[in-house]
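Before surveying the methods themselves, we first show a specimen of the format, giving the amino acid sequence and backbone structure tokens:

:::
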Amino acid sequence: MEIIRALSSLIWGLPTVTLLLGFGVYFGIKLRKNKLLSIPYVYKKTFGSLKASGKQKSEGLSPLSTLATALGGTVGVGSITGVALSIKLGGAGSIFWIWVCSIIGIFLKYAEVFISHRHRKRLNGNFIGGAMLCLSDLGFKYTAGIFSVFCVLASFGNATVQSNAVSKSLTELGLQPKISALLIASFILFITLGGREKIASFNSMAVPFFSISFILVCFIILLINVRAFPKAFLRIVTEAFGIREAGSGITAGLFLNALKVGTVRGTFSHEAGMGSSAIAHASSSETNSHVQGLWGATEVFIDSFIVSTLTAFCILCSGFDDVGKMFENLFGVAGQIYFACAIAVFAFAAIISWVYYGESMILQLKSRALFIKVFCVITALTAFFGALSNTEGVFIMADLFNGLMIFPNLFLLYKLRSEIVCAGKV
């Protein structure tokens, strides 16, 4: 585990953080006329256009289904228990850097979704796209293969993280860890062996319902602790710049730790720069790549500025460092049961969304039907053992695999930067 920890620290060191921020700032400047930060404009082009587009018959998944699948991969444990871990490791200031990372992430997400959707292809009745396909078409087949391998490994890493969180919640309800692990693995097999359509169908039903209900419950918690809100906000801002409390001076170590943890946890949550959810967005029935890019921007906004932010404020205002304990303390057994169910649904959605991404890699191979079944079985086994593993250990492993995806994906964005900037203008 020490080797994994060292590799993860190396991958997520200052150079990678600088690279992500640099690419985000570049696209932020170049795409400033695309109104990606204008909530009314983005809403009009996405949710506001659903009624009109619903009358048109198109191939592929609906924009809402692709959003739900992408959110299934992002609004998982990283946006809830991952936020608690971020505050624990990087202090309240890490939340500020999650916000900064997410603003930059909106532009990165738009860029990777736009280019993946624009260069997608139809294969055996399915739309597929993503960095692996774009890199291959550009002649970088070796780099495309590397991205595909990293994506598959990342799906296994995310399966361990998500299943570990589910197991922990179910154990607190009295279920034995091995029973929880078996149930998790069985459910994953049941859904994933049904194919990409079944994955999208589950996410389309489960993710919106539990996202909305979780948001409402968070608002209730904030209303209960409304007096603590100003102090919580002050902590986020001051600790972000190394100031632990008034009059204590600026601590460089606190600042750098908050910056690193916030960037890593933010990227792990919204996945901008990794090129993962762009694979799901490429399957959309939407024909306009600019509009699909806006759906990608919406994904980051919902994940980071709604779910993650509300979770953070609930933690800081209530005084709990464990989200499950917070729900149990405020709402009793009902809160404990709800939280366990919400975590289970978000985690399952994340796992099967990553299976969706992995299947997109495999669809380009020969004997793909056999490989897909084997992939689903391995994912289920990975989730089984992840449910019985140490929480911090599985997060470190997932961080490593997620980080490895960044480099070939950013290489693609660099190669096609002119196309993204020029073709994306409104």
Summary: The beta strands are 121-123, 126-128. The mean pLDDT is 81. The domain at 59-410 is CATH 1.20.1740.10 (Amino acid/polyamine transporter I). The radius of gyration is 20 Å.
